[in-house]
Batch of 4 targets.
Target 1
Amino acid sequence: MSRGTLVAMGAAAERRERLRDEFRREIVGAARRIVVEDGYAALTMRRIGEAIGYSAASIYQYFANRDAIAGALMEEGFVELVEAFAPAATIADPLSRLKAVGRAYVRFGLTRPETYRLMFMEDPKITAGVLEGSAGENSAGMRAYAAILEPLVQLFERGRLRDDLTPPVAADVMWISLHGLVSLKLTCPKFPATPDDALLDATMETLACGLLQ
Amino acid sequence: MSRGTLVAMGAAAERRERLRDEFRREIVGAARRIVVEDGYAALTMRRIGEAIGYSAASIYQYFANRDAIAGALMEEGFVELVEAFAPAATIADPLSRLKAVGRAYVRFGLTRPETYRLMFMEDPKITAGVLEGSAGENSAGMRAYAAILEPLVQLFERGRLRDDLTPPVAADVMWISLHGLVSLKLTCPKFPATPDDALLDATMETLACGLLQ
DNA sequence: GTCTATAGGCTGATAGAC
DNA sequence: GTCTATCAGCCTATAGAC
């Protein structure tokens, strides 16, 4: 809610809105716990209702439908991803920063499998909705992307990027590889037989050697 | 069914078995069409029954449950993937062969989204079952993996592989990147903003530069 | 605002008739 | 072997009482 909307309301309406927001957050919190514990398929209105001590029907007062709750959950996921990038983002050297961001991405995905799955592997409709709805702005999704792009821009400016690449293309290649590592490990933990750590090291080194000159 | 089993049966039993196999194939064929058209979630016993002109209950005479059908569908997917690799596998130069296999993999995934999704993005339980159940043998899954591994072995033998890599690790890095490209495009077609072709070119070139020395 | 009740679906799987 | 009927559940979403 914008500041403009707030000042236009009376104090009572304002308090009501605050309570409403709190309730919405409670719903999303419960939804997160359900998804983390039992996956996206287990996210039903009944289970959310149970978790917050209300009937399923009440939830429709706060969210239009189940997809809207999943969308809110995804947005929270992007905020967490940006937070996971924060320590890496302070590193001065762009190549070290890029590598640290990459490692943070993979750690995020492997330690929050169900959140990651919801954000990037589950429902194209909802993922598209959240990414498009928040594109262009200073959204968490764009800030996460920027954390990968920005070190590559700096490397490009220093003439370190392979010369057939532009920073956005290099960022997409990087993202693809990181996503591939996380998502393949989430769906078939056994098969890429290389252990997680060695695979991450080899992937980061391959990207560093392959993207730079 | 093994040859040994066949010769131990009478001619009548043999014919019965052949009919049974034919029926099983019909079921899997119908299942494939449903998954291709409407996705894995639409794969229900009732819909399969409708498609083959039998009741849902009859299917349980041929498959233990729905997961067994999904597993059979995945195995067919691996066979198709190996077939998709066939033209590339004849190329003599190992680097050209590796690149052609990579392109064939991405084409397979992007042109059969629902099959690919079922094989690598959907249900860890079934994917694990099929990959483990067919590991070690001359299964389609292993042959698909071999198509990526083998050119890398040849490059390794010629001393062309980056020297901190072994062929299996390099194969896993390659697979991860290809899978990342396909799976990200399937879940959010819009966001990695680089067009498919340019992204594939950039990824293959990055892998070639990054894995080799 | 919250509830119960319910419409109107869907699912996998099985029992028992034929 | 195939069927119908059914069990035992699940779901989203809404109407209408309070």
Target 2
Amino acid sequence: MLEAARALLGSILISDVGGARTAVRLIEVEAYGGGDDPASHAFRGPTLRNRSMFGPPGTFYVYRSYGVHWCANVVAGLEGTPAAVLLRAGEPVQGREVMEERRGRPDHLTDGPGKLCRALALTGEHDGTSVWEGPVRLTEGDAPPGVVAASSRIGVTRGGDLPWRLVLRTGWR
DNA sequence: CGGTGGATTCTCT
DNA sequence: GAGAATCCACCGA
């Protein structure tokens, strides 16, 4: 599980949504388990909302947070084994102008789960799509992860104790 | 069938 | 630093 999250660090997330191409390099992710992880949406079993988490690996799980934002995950567990990696933050590598326009700001474009989705125009429409075949794709980054720091997960009301938040060292936090 | 709360973000004080 | 915004699936009755 943590290996999957670690592998995602440094990967390039490409979005062709809306006709414009935007891409970021992932620098922060969080791992979530299944029935044994109280913080996971899949803790209580499959539901309409989290059904994507129970799909095959390489599936996007996008959900609405606080009724306002979108948060994107990549399913990492085997089919039937709910486990996903939340994409928390990245750094723009392509289409920065488009992101600025979508965000309405010149900075802090992709330094949060909700911001990341908005910058890439990720919405619930992409929930359940493949990370290799859909309008939003994931490719291996050319830059191998440097120093990876692990810490507790953020914003979680239950089970925030597990050090499953992984950050690529870029001089942040 | 209605209340509730969330893996957040922005704005104002 | 605190509080609002804002939607809908889930939970309990």
Target 3
Amino acid sequence: MPELPEVETVRRALLPAMQGRKITAAFVGRDDLRWPLPPDLADRITGRHVAGLDRRAKYILIRLSGDEVLLLHLGMSGSVRIHHTPPQLAKHDHVMVEMAPDATGQPAFVVFRDPRRFGWIDLFSATAESQHKLLANLGPEPLGNEFSPAYLAACLKTRTGPIKTVLLNQQLVAGLGNIYVSEALFRAGISPRRRASSIRGVRADRLATAIIDTLRAAIADGGTSLRDHVQPGGDIGYFVQRLAVYGRAGEPCPTCAAPVQSLVQAGRRSFYCSHCQR
DNA sequence: CTCCTGACCTGAGTGC
DNA sequence: TGCACTCAGGTCAGGA
């Protein structure tokens, strides 16, 4: 479900609810999601303060006092909701943390829901972060300084697969998923079937810019709500209204009005305009 | 290395 | 209503 913009939306919403506050209680409703949860997770985070919240690719990193890091990945169907009174937990609400009241006396209850349980949670020492199996091999952040047209062009140069599947590789660029790859390729006017190594020069520049612009616009709208994603405050992600091609097979291309096409590549659906994207 | 498939899991939607 | 089937925003392990 959640790609970079949705995860960033969650992080930003969690800031006021968690940053600088103490975890006063934690509930963990099962012992595994995609993988086993850390043993004694609830006990190990209760009583700690939240020093900060970062995002890396599609992971949220909650920095706790005592140099511990609580890592959260939302998988396909994960979502986070913030409540200010004790919520009634539903079937797929697996974890809840209660935060000490803020300056106005308002507590916060942060609930992690994940019906398909493709998400995961880990807890580890901050010193182990750079070697963490899930973090160590991630490529640069597309909205960070390391990502540039030159970097992208260098990555694509040796890749023989279609650009659609190459851009889903988190080791090259971290945080893109199925929605934003389709949208960025549309913005760049590049066909999802095009061999990655054939994208050079101006086309690579245009693609890098399209990736950045698409992600920024989606973050500004609170992400894209299709099925599961809601912002932690309960709002939908409004970028769904701006999708040009994703999920719109048969509808008119917003540029040329030709019907949007779709195909499956490496098991994932792609959407594109065969007239505007070459 | 790179590329693809299958696996993990539930729920929503569709067609009969 | 019910059943069978397909598909869904991710990514890892395993094999070619």
Target 4
Amino acid sequence: MGRATSKRMHRCPVAAFQKMIAGKYKLRILWDLQDGQRRYGEIRSGLLRGTEGTREIAPRVLSRELKALAASGLVIRKDYAVMPPKVEYRLTPMGKSFIPVIGEIRKWGARYLAGENLSLAS
Amino acid sequence: MGRATSKRMHRCPVAAFQKMIAGKYKLRILWDLQDGQRRYGEIRSGLLRGTEGTREIAPRVLSRELKALAASGLVIRKDYAVMPPKVEYRLTPMGKSFIPVIGEIRKWGARYLAGENLSLAS
DNA sequence: CAGCATCCTGCGTGATACTG
DNA sequence: CAGTATCACGCAGGATGCTG
């Protein structure tokens, strides 16, 4: 099955949204990329901030997340094909358009999931 | 009350958000509840709309989703304790405050995930 | 540095049967 | 009607080692 309809026309945007951002890191990666391009290692380190207790993210996992984001059309992978390797990821226009949505999520989450923390912006 | 807060202070609202809406149906359930209270069976049937191909949602799954939503403080379960059973679920103020966020998600999803499918509606 | 190959484990999801 | 009890399964996510 599957076949021609590799990308289904979702009648339910919410379901599509959930699939798109499935995974622990996708939203945070997108958010981190809003400032500009980032290298693989930068993204990786960025995901560790605020999570002292946790371990390093498995390369396999991060790799898959990034591929999925690229496949969704949210980010673009730029491989400089140099040695040592240098790869940068940046948001596509579609990805950029999604940032405000994450912003809304964060705003709501800051109020209802983290107390009356008013001072955060970022 | 130091740790009286049953809900942890998440430094990352996004991560907390993801946990909160984890599961295939939570967002859709919340969205469906915005019009008012709904009974268990109504929610169940509502989740089938627009998903002709799929089968009925397993009671076990829906039950867990609803419990999780209640535990998150997004919905309230009202049990009428009658025979035959009648249980209604409705949004808490916190749950209602979350509806606009879903609205943003849907708006974005309708534009970028459903193509130029203008038949958006619900 | 930016991954890929392999193994392993927990749990989310589904299907079915049963109950107050 | 509104669930609970079991069984089964795929896959996300982690851990390690290796490579161009």
